[in-house]
Design brief:
The chain is mainly alpha-helical. The protein folds into 3 domains: 139 residues, Fumarase/aspartase (N-terminal domain) (Fumarase C, Chain B, domain 1, Orthogonal Bundle); 250 residues, Fumarase C, Chain A, domain 2; 48 residues, Orthogonal Bundle (Ribonucleotide Reductase Protein R1, domain 1), CATH 1.10.40. It has 18 helices and 6 strands. The strands form 3 sheets. The protein has a two-stranded antiparallel ribbon with strand order 1-2. A two-stranded antiparallel ribbon has the order 3-4. α6 runs antiparallel to α7 and α16 crosses α17. The termini are far apart. Keywords: Lyase.
């Protein structure tokens, strides 16, 4: 180990060797060594939110006279660089880390503290690692992991939902609605229990898909309100210890003004510290979205099955070869991908629910896991939906001949006879047509029951 590759830092547990070029410090280095678990770190959106909090806290503490202007401005500048992504490679702590996210918070504090120290070099500071701008005393002033971590999660979740997920859902809803209008003239056989049912318009089927997405969009939108609560100033357990009396309200207002979003203080600070209600609520809505997307994509797979031995009432745009052994085979690849993403999100919902149960007394120590699963769910769901629209929904075509053939051969057309001759006789006619492999019209003619009224009743016009 070359001495010029590392620097010695001292923390409350002793000496730690930190890479000489690193902007993080001893506590981040300890976490890197302690948690070599997944090689996954919290995402860019979370790091951005941490930078927003640190910048806003420094500005607030400066304006309240708690932080020297020179130090505060250096912290703000360093934090802005974090927000822009300049130091993402310095955020090294694994997702599966010490409870509550202390290591993640210190990673941000150390990177910003070292960078701020570097920015003050013209003002008689020491080298990186000397922390003229101290990670705890200055960068973390009036803060704790326990209030900043869940607040960063809420900020990141709100930004991702509003900028990615909700626009993607609107695009999907519109694409399905457009297909509904396009396909409305096309009649086909409905199906219940995967067996023949009365006729339906293909456009009606797609209108159901579109309306379902619209409903889920409304539920996703409703999850934003609890996410707008950020408990900055609550500090360790909600008692606002070591903060200026005006700090909590002021720092939240700084963030709200900056992002032009209605972030607010929690209605009860202690509840905010104890529980991850908003994340659990949001994840529940994402799970419901996943359930509905599985239904829709599974239906599209069934409707496009074949193309020679399945339903093949619709065709999907081909995106890639489907088999390494069967030449020319094309699979519903995009729909399968979306199904996989939805399975992951449903699993994530269980992880967050289980982590939510782990709240004890004043905090929930499973916050890093909750942050990872919620933000990853929003990310993969947003990307999957955008891909679904662009590479599948927009290119769906209907096969009117297949739709008509199936509809006209369906024995469920017998349903139209119920008001004329009753359920029992209609059932007998349908069963006889099935057994003798005849059309309903043939059986009715043989039974002497085919009148103009009856003939109209067993056509699609009489059943739509």
């Amino acid at each position: 180990m070359s001495s010029d590759q590392y620097r010695k830092e001292m923390d409350t547990l002793g000496v730690v060797l930190v890479p000489a070029s690193a902007y993080y410090g001893s506590q981040t280095q300890r976490a890197i060594g302690n948690f070599p678990i997944s090689n996954k770190t919290l995402p860019r959106s979370f790091i951005r939110a941490q930078g927003i909090i640190k910048s806003s806290a420094a500005l607030t503490n400066m304006e309240l006279g708690k932080l020297p202007k020179e130090t505060a401005n250096a912290i703000i500048e360093a934090s802005e660089e974090v927000i822009q992504g300049k130091w993402d490679d310095q955020f090294k702590v694994d997702v599966y880390q010490a409870g509550a996210g202390t290591s993640q918070n210190m990673n941000a504090n150390e990177v910003i503290g070292n960078r701020a120290t570097e920015l003050l070099k013209n003002s008689s500071n020491g080298p990186v690692g000397s922390f003229r701008v101290h990670p705890n005393d200055h960068v973390n002033m009036a803060q704790s992991t326990n209030d900043t971590f869940p607040s960063a999660l809420h900020i990141a979740a709100v930004e991702n939902i509003t900028s990615k997920l909700m626009p993607a859902l609107l695009d999907l809803q519109q694409a399905l609605q457009d297909k509904s209008v396009e396909f409305m003239p096309i009649l086909k056989s409905g199906r219940t229990h995967l067996h023949d049912a009365v006729p339906i318009q293909l456009g009606q089927e797609f209108s159901g898909f579109a309306s379902t997405i619209q409903s889920v969009y409304t539920q996703i939108e409703a999850t934003l309100d609890p996410l707008y609560e950020i408990g900055l100033g609550g500090n360790a357990i909600g008692t606002v210890i070591n903060t200026h009396p005006d700090y909590p309200k002021k720092v939240v207002q700084v963030i709200s003004n900056r992002l032009e979003m209605p972030f607010r203080q929690p209605s009860n600070m202690f509840s905010f510290m104890q529980n991850r209600n908003a994340a659990i609520h949001t994840m529940g809505a994402l799970k419901e979205l996943a359930v509905h997307l599985i239904k829709i994509t599974s239906d599209l797979r069934l409707l496009s099955s074949g193309p020679r031995t399945g339903l093949a009432e619709i065709s999907l745009p081909p995106v890639q070869p489907g088999s390494t052994i069967m030449p020319g085979k094309v699979n519903p690849a995009i729909l399968e991908m979306v199904h996989m993403v939805c399975c992951q999100v449903i699993g994530y919902e269980t992880a967050i629910a289980t982590a939510g149960i782990a709240s004890q007394l004043e905090i929930n120590v499973m916050m890093p896991l909750i942050a990872h699963t919620l933000l990853d769910s929003i990310e993969i769901m947003s990307n999957a939906i955008s891909t679904l629209v662009a590479k599948c929904i927009l290119g769906i075509q209907a096969d009117e001949v297949a739709c008509k053939t199936f509809m006209e051969s369906s024995l469920s057309l017998v349903t139209g006879l119920n008001p004329i001759m009753g359920y029992d006789l209609a059932a007998k006619i349908g069963m006889q047509a099935d057994i003798e492999n005849k059309t309903l019209k043939q059986v009715l003619l043989e039974m002497g029951l085919l009148t103009d009224e009856v003939e109209k009743a067993i056509t699609h016009e009489g059943l739509i």
